[in-house]
Fold this protein.
Amino acid sequence: MPSRFAEDVLSPRYQLRSTSEVKHTGVALTLNHSKLVPGICIFPVEVLEEIILAVLVPKRVFSSIANFSLASYQFRQIAFRNFFKTFCASSIDQWTNLRKVPGVVSWARSLESVSIVVFSQLDNLAAFTNFSSVEIDMSPEGLSTQHTFIKYLFKHLPAGLLHLTLSFLPRVDTALLSRISEKFLNLQTLQLTCTERLVDDCCWDCYEEASTCTVHSPIPDVYVDAEDLSYAFGTALVPLTKLTTLHLGIFLSELDIFQYHLYDCRCITFQTLIGPAVMGTSSFGGPDSCPQCFELFSKNVRATELFASACIARTLPALETISWSSFFAEDNPGDDQDNLTTTAWVLRKDGKVKVRRAPWC
Ligand SMILES: [Zn+2]
Ligand SMILES: [Zn+2]
């Protein structure tokens, strides 16, 4: 239990001047000496902790707290305890070195890392029993390795997890959802995304190739339609009775829409006997930037998104919002056109479940 007052925290030789000012990246705190008992500083630890947290807000780098941590042993404990609340390791070396900091295992409340790094440190992972939030970048994994990694990852995570984020997933399916709901019964936030693998910043060929490495649109190849998908996902998530926020980063538009865009909207130049000819009408980009696809498909897809949201909300009693990836986000409170997501808010009234793309109150 940390000391609450500065007489326990500050070094014995530390004396406040008549007016002391502590400044850190926009945070200023002034102490008036006249209000203090001479010789005794009543500087609450909570204030020091707030200063450290404020310092770390703009950029979570160790250099921000380095000088503070050198002031005394107690200051160092406060600085480290707050800095290492998030255990952020993007490389194996980083994980290995940070793990050597005494106390880091008990301070860490959340983990941010990459699958390949975590996999190399599985034995160390088990020592972090206080994690309540875990965020893993799954981009090094493929369709054939996702299952194995998830199996070992979950085995070494605490069952009391409240927030779980897996990004850049090759696929989101019932096998993954069932594993999550079996292990993490207290989960409040669940974010599973894979559509960010569809990078559209190069050319048609790269876009098409990226689409083959992820199951971004599981209808109709994996699930016949939105009803089939909703039933399967909802059933798999039933044990998560405390889940309030769910984000499933897959497209509910049928794969045929993506294929249509890829082959029918694409500009293809080919040589004819009388010279070059161009086939297609659209310049490069996903269906989200294609007026033709928007005109043809957006209305049905958006209705499907709300339908699936309501179906899943019926199986999760605490669910407040549910989000999907969408090529057809519009100018709505629940739509994010930059990140291609759409969010529905859930209302439960008279035993019925309603959803809409805006908060209900
Ligand atoms: Zn390319
Ligand atoms: Zn198109």
Remarks:
- Residues 261, 265, 282, 287, 290, 292-293 surround zinc ion (ligand 2) (CB under 6 Å).
- The radius of gyration is 26 Å.
- Residues 1-34 have pLDDT under 50 and may be disordered.
- Residues 3 and 9 are 6 Å apart (CA to CA).
